[in-house]
Amino acid sequence: MKLTNKIIVLTGGSSGVGLDILRHIVGDNMVINLSRTAPEGGKLPAGASFTHIPTDFSKARCVVTAIAEIQERFPDGINGLINCAAVQYTPRLTDPNFDPANISEEIAINLTSPISLIAGLLGSLRQGTESFILNINSGLGIVPKDESAVYCATKAGLDNFSRGLRAQLESTQVSVLQAFLPLVDTPMTKGRGTGKLHSSEVASQIIAGIEREISDNDIGKVKLLRTINRFFPSIANRIMQKGNA
Q: What is the spatial distance between Cα 178 and Cα 189, in angstroms, rounded to a whole number?
């Protein structure tokens, strides 16, 4: 699959990995970005085929509105959906600054909204040819750490959902893919961990995985983490608690 001349919906393209994915694909494709704010001016190539639909993924009605607008603008269907938007709160439930109100928001943004987008846009995806869904996941969806327990749960849930959906769509032309990321140097991970990969390099590997139709694309240290977890889960757990994977 070659990412050229396609209509692609991308979530979270205003910063971090999402912005770098947008930069990589917008020159050859029509990209519809869904995020609370649009990318800052000057960060995209001049004349790029790009549109922004303001979307708050913590609110179900905003997701429904975005789906309806996409369907109205592109009645002949779309070719891809990249779910990249995510939020991560680090306090433990035992920490004094843990806010229970963040639980529902984290689940909504990281898990409920991607599922809702897929459900709402599946008909549009099935109208296209060589269509794909890519869910951006994390090594924390494979092995959790003591911080960010809710985030880890949403990523594990996204993994299970993706594999279940892949089985459902096996007889269709829609591929269901995942990219499992290591610690990436983004605004979300500022001040956390070491040995981070640059978001532009990660975006490049994500796109290569789409074009090669890799079902579960383990990027960077995640490849080793998955292998260690398969044979030595206790060691994998200790690695994740260090926060450098």
A: 21
**Residues 172-220: pLDDT tens digits?**
999 999 999 999 977 666 556 556 799 999 999 999 999 999 999 999 9
pTM of the entire predicted model: 0.94
In sequence order, the β-bridge partners of residue 34 are: 11, 53
Distance CA 117, CA 10 (A): 11
Whose tokens are 């070491």? That residue is 194
Which residues sit opposite 8 in a β-bridge?
Answer: 31, 80
Query: Which residues, 6+ apart, have CB-to-CB distance to 150 below 8 Å?
Result: 89, 102, 103, 106, 107
User: Alpha-carbon distance 43 to 5, whole Å?
Assistant: 21
State phi, psi for 186 to the nearest 5 degrees. -135, 170
176 phi-psi bin (left φ>0, alpha ψ -120 to 50, beta other): beta
Backbone angles phi, psi at 217, to 5 degrees: -90, 100
The CA-atom distances, in angstroms, between 210 and each of 64, 135, 176, 183 are 26, 11, 10, 20
pLDDT digits (tens, 9 = 90+) for 34-68: 999 998 766 677 677 899 999 999 999 999 999 99
